[in-house]
Amino acid sequence: MWIEARIEGNGNKRKQLDKAPWSGSKIGKRSAKHLLWGLAALLTGCGFIGYFIPARELYLEIFTGNASFWVTAWVWFFAICTYLNAGWMREQMCLHCCPYARFQAVMFDANTKTVTYDAQRGESRGPRKRKQEIPPSEHGLGDCVDCNLCVEVCPTGIDIRNGLQYECINCGACVDACNETMLKFDYQQNLIGYISENELKGVSHSYWRSPRFIGYGAAVIIMLVVIGLDLNSRSEIQLNVIRDRQSLYRETVDNKVENTYQLKIRNKTQQTKQYQIAVLSEMPFSLIAEPVITLAAGEQSEYPVTVLADKAAIPSGRKIIQFSVTDIQEPKQQVSQETGFFSP
Ligand code: SF4
Ligand code: SF4
Question: Which residue, by CA, sits nearest to atom 2 of ligand 2?
């Protein structure tokens, strides 16, 4: 909407442009708008996928056309969703798809501040001149001058003067619009404002006596503690072991069996780290790979390794082995993952 307002102007100008016949200027404005929407959507798509793939590589690969099929497909999926949802569906998303409004109703009580029209003060509504010698109340009028601005600016198209409605997303656009009108008429602000039901009735309250306030407050504190503990115990290394999908095992001429794996190791710290790679088992397995790997801050590496064993020294079938990756400078930082080793 911000891009649209910069290119096509305010609501009235956009309506005029909609009705105008196609011309060079209209084609130019529409093309620029959709091009910028597309770019914003593509950046948003990259933003989503950047949670799963190192962002520096992702942007480079997407904009140079070198990303893999699945990465490109996911980025475009989110980009198209963003383009359609933010560009075309807009408030329909808020009304029909977003669970926020329904969810929030559960948390409401008479003390919740929400966008509310003060009907007692505003009614009876009606137009009037800006400067009146006789106060409006003597004409039987309230403070609402019925300018309809609050309805015009509402992104979900509702009239807040009809009371609380589930479509209201509490954006506050009607509050600002009404306050501007109040200013012009020299009336008190906040005919529409963030007001609770009890405030409107003049009933005083204390949050500390509200079971909802205490309950939700306790829930938030518990969540913060859990997040804090989780962050504190978070591992600084990420390990993902993937078996070679081409063959279960290989037999060598000197009666040994080998299995190959890809170790995806990520350094989640902000410093360059050296890691020791080892294979752990009660049986005599040996690792055929350079056992120390150096990763820069935030780097992820796919490291191929082979595990070897004497055929006679291990039972046939599947055995469990464990790979471990240890930070050489801080041995407390260690991760491990189990996987299978196959032999004939
Ligand atoms: S707060 Fe926003 S959504 Fe709710 S009535 Fe006002 S303008 Fe409409
Ligand atoms: S903006 Fe304020 S004064 Fe104008 S119609 Fe809405 S409530 Fe009434």
Answer: 178
Give, using CA atoms, the residue closest to atom 4 of ligand 2: 147
Query: Picking from 89-93, 237-241, 300-304, 334-338, which range would have the lowest pLDDT averaged per residue?
Result: 89-93
Give kind and range of the element (H or E) at residue 193.
Answer: strand 192-195
Could you tell me if 310 and 296 are in contact, meaning their C-beta atoms sit under 8 angstroms apart?
A: no
Per-residue confidence (pLDDT) for residue 118, from 0 to 100: 92
Distance CA 191, CA 208 (A): 28
Please tell me the distance from the alpha carbon of residue 260 to that of residue 245, in angstroms, as a whole number. Answer: 9
Of 114, 179, 113, 170, the C-alpha closest to 144 is: 179
Q: Looking at the chain, how many residues does it have? A: 344
- Band the pLDDT of 169: cuts 50, 70, 90: confident
Our CA dihedral for 247, 251, 252, 255, rounded to 10 degrees, sits at: 160
% of the chain at pLDDT higher than 70: 99
CA of 134 to the centre of ligand 2 (A): 20
Arithmetic mean of pLDDT, 45-50 = 94
Q: Which of 95, 116, 148, 156 to mutate to test the pocket of ligand 1 (most atoms within 8 A of CB)?
A: 156
For residues 216-224, average pLDDT:
95
Nearest ligand, CA 163:
1
Q: Alpha carbon 329 to chain centroid distance? A: 35
